[in-house]
Amino acid sequence: MPRLIELRIQALLYCLLLILGGFTFCRTSLAEDSRRPNIVMIISDDQTYRDFGFMGNRQIKTPQIDQLAAQSARFVNGYLPTSVCSPSLATLLTGLYPHQSGIHYNHPPPGNSAFNRMTSRKEYEQTRSPAFQLIQSVDTLPRLLAAHGYRCLQTGKFWEGHYRNAGFTEGMTIFEPVPGQTFGGNRKLANGTLAAHGNGDWGLKIGRETMQPIYDFVKDCEKESTPWLVWYAPYLPHQPHDSPQKYFDLYRDQPGVKKNEIAYYASCTEFDDTVGDLVRFVEKEANVKNTLFLFVIDNGWTPGERPMQPRENYHHTKASKRSPFEDGLRSPILIRWDGVTQPATLTELVSSIDVVPTLLNAAGLKKEAQRLPGVNLLPAAEGKEALPADRAVYGAIFPGDASSLKHPERDVAHRWVRQGNLKLITSHNANAQGKTWNNYTRGDVLYDVVKDPGETNNLIDDPQFKVPQQTLRELLNQWWNPES
Ligand SMILES: [Ca+2]
């Protein structure tokens, strides 16, 4: 064969390969971009990170979540930016830190007690409503997914008024009181009028009374082949720990179970059963290979020694809910997407700030995800790429009532950062006696939370930790400096 023709054939073959390769590449990225998995967000309300079988608790019975964990990428060293309901849930809606979304409180001004002192529903609702503008004006996960062709259902805990405020297309919470609902969701004003408490009202029926709204929604979406998101954030195991008797019976007179753990453990198992019902329903009614399950807690809650009503309920320990300590701030994060993620235990530090960008990436919304501070956990969950070992995670603690809107720096009580084994907690807005809100710490504190997960050995004055302490301070100020 003449040399020239040979070269031409080679060049032609080369071009053909390039075209085929490009075509294959395009097909892959097209497939990835156009995949729109259904998404089930399962959010536990007030449960400490250790209190699952798969996290090592030998007393508590959580077989359904353990089963989900066995099928999931298990991020066992997960954190929450903050340790109380509303701002933690706002992070799961927006992918922003509380100081960024402005939702750093449970109750906007003038605060919970002042709301209770009001004498008309109209006054209360008009005073509570301006804060809803914060969620209305931000690109939330459901809003972005809805614009991408999803139907998005809100059920359970939700602090942003009507479900539509956050961009859900359907939902249960409508910022209206629920006559006769005794376990939560209502607020009694000073003149006896009922109003919506602000934490979910009608939505709080999910899990505790019914699962039907989710079942109807999923069936309907499946019938019309529309991708869907379910926000399942039941008021469980949140107090009141008033589970049916059969759940209490599991823990009475059990060796190793303390008196103050019984009612809480009962609620944890009641919650676990609902997760099993939900997962089995989705497995039966939807294409499970095209469905991503994500599990996370909104904040920790550890039973303390002080009894309260109803009977067998206890107040939580000071070091859990609301606090800057591990029992309040940690949560495992589970991601199950059959055929995509790998069941494995992953020990790198992650945060619930990563949830929204991860889910946006799963739905092909990469550009929208890139604007957010969290990282996409999918490559790690797929077993393709480890997260950086030196990653730092961050957060801040605020009082339950906001003193003003859009000024998180005026209210912040603590900031915290963890990198490697070390966690630094700084204090802010101390009063004249040097005490910050709730008096969690005396000044700044530093702990090795791997050796000392109970955070009892303060290393802040230990000269050995002077340099790493400085590094953590710099990281924290780069993340958010409320004094600048
Ligand atoms: Ca909570």
TrEMBL record:
InterPro entries: Alkaline_phosphatase_core_sf, Sulfatase, Sulfatase_N. Keywords: Calcium, Hydrolase, Metal-binding, Signal. The gene is betC_6. Its cofactor is Ca(2+). This is Choline-sulfatase. GO terms for molecular function: arylsulfatase activity; choline-sulfatase activity; metal ion binding. Belongs to the sulfatase family. Residues 37-364 form the Sulfatase N-terminal domain. Pfam families: Sulfatase (PF00884). It is an enzyme of class 3 (hydrolase). It comes from Gimesia chilikensis. Its EC number is 3.1.6.6.
